Amino acid sequence: MKKIRGNDVILSFVCLVLGFMLSFSYQYTKDQATKRNITDRQWQKEYEYRQMLIHAQKENRKLKEELMKKQEKVRQIETSLANKKAAYVDLVKEAEQLRMYVGKVKVKGKGVEVTLADASYIPNEQNATNYIVHEQHVFAVVHELLISGAEAIAINGQRISHRSYIVCNGPVIEVDGVQHAAPFVISAIGDPNVLTSALNIAGGVKDQLVNDHVVVKIASKEEIVLEPIFRTNHD
């Protein structure tokens, strides 16, 4: 009886241990499966998020490329408009300069006044023509002023243009059909220093006029006002 009871105790102990091991194994397997299920769900979520991020990045690159293209198009339009505006401004300036050169607009600015007068003393009446101002003298001054940068010129207040003509008509000079008597005041708008230097250069216009017995006076002016040309016969 004692032996049988000892075996029962051992058998009971073995069953207890076996039951504990089975219970532990079941719980462990269950826990591992639960963990594995959680891990699988997390991986699936991470994959979905990663795909969403990749898609968002692609869309962002696409939108960025479109934005850059639109910005480039806007820049080209702005450049084109700026060029057109600059061209229009240049055209307006050119038109204004042309109007000024042809005497169509009133102009004012710094410049010089060149006065040409007949000689005060004529030693021989027979050679009096050698001591008075002729059209070539006036033309020489006008030509020198133009090539020296004069923007507008007038003779005795009468504006001249690229189509003007100057001729002698007896004791007077005719400018575009209008007669003027000496002295002749030639007004020119431009840089006074440049114009004065050009006229006074050694062996230049002034020296030639003096050699022809013409009295020459050159004065710089802070402001010269020249009225437009109103005639129509040369328009």
UniProtKB/TrEMBL annotation:
Residues 53-87 form a coiled coil. PROSITE patterns: S4. One of its GO terms (molecular function) is RNA binding. Keywords: Coiled coil, RNA-binding. The keyword NADP does not apply. The keyword Lipid biosynthesis does not apply. Gene3D superfamilies: Protein of unknown function DUF881 (3.30.70.1880). InterPro entries: DUF881 (IPR010273). It holds the Pfam family DUF881. Belongs to the UPF0749 family. This is Uncharacterized protein YlxW (UPF0749 family). It comes from Anoxybacteroides tepidamans.
